[in-house]
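Bit of a strange request maybe. I'm writing a small parser for structure token strings and I need a real example to test against, not something I typed by hand. Could someone generate the tokens for this chain?
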Amino acid sequence: MDQEATGMSPPRPLDGLVHETKADIARRLRRIRRHHPEGPFSLAKLADLAGVSKRTLTSVESDDGANLTIGTLVKVAHSLGIQRCAQWS
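Reply from user aminoacidic:
Good idea to test on real output. This should exercise your parser:
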């Protein structure tokens, strides 16, 4: 039985899911940075706190979340006081 007959949509390509996830994280990071209880944090200040370059953060916060690595995400999250991934939601 094919996917159309079962009413199931075809699986999305992995690249599309990765892009969507990075874009979602970028939106959330911008929101958290701008509305943090101890902020708002400028990109330069957050970069300094996280130990990453401002250029890296600018790229991470871009619409497609380019250059986002787990290491960068963990550094930024910890610098914002986020210790659990559930707090990103």
